[in-house]
Amino acid sequence: MEERELIEALLKRLGGRFSAALGIELDGGDSGEIFKWFLASILYGARISETIASNTYREFERRGVLSPEEVLETGWDGLVEILDAGGYVRYDFKTATKLLEVMGNLQERFGGDLNQLHAQARDPQDLEAKLMGLGKGIGPTTANIFLRELRDVWEKADPLPQDLAVMAARNLGLVRAADRREILAELRAIWERCAPAGWKFADFEASLVRLGKDYCRRRQCEVCPLADHCRARR
What we know:
single chain, 234 residues, globular
């Protein structure tokens, strides 16, 4: 299979951005949509299944709690109720506390607008630092999840590839470098050569994360939709 066909198969079989799967539209840079993805990223950032995190985000959506103000107005007890309803039981108390801290700081420092946070950041590193500075609920993993899907939306959103994406890319023979910044450059070069119409680089990266998470890490080679193209099996 040629490189272009491999990329098309990866996107078709694994899907693109996690935000798009939740019905969140990031491309326009709307503050409300970006906040929705921020909330979802916090949920995805814990050691919990993608299904539970997605269900919990949809519970926030169902109850109309989709802004910093609404999170703060809901309060700790209300947040625990939403988290439990979504299946986020293991981390309900801890996450409710984190959400209140993060949203309070977001309101106080940036008027509740993540676009303002981005505007005030000097560079990609400062952007990550400002995000993580919002509270204990935003660690490197959550910041990476959030910023990964904002590539090409926010100028300063440029995180390094996650371990899962690197693992999948190596198994498919797409990258050879050891340095994460060089790996990112390799992936971008592939995308420039092979990008299918209607997809963005963030979709490509998300599909690699899915492949790494659901198949490579678990060694589910027998059921992997791209097993025939895996260098690790040869």
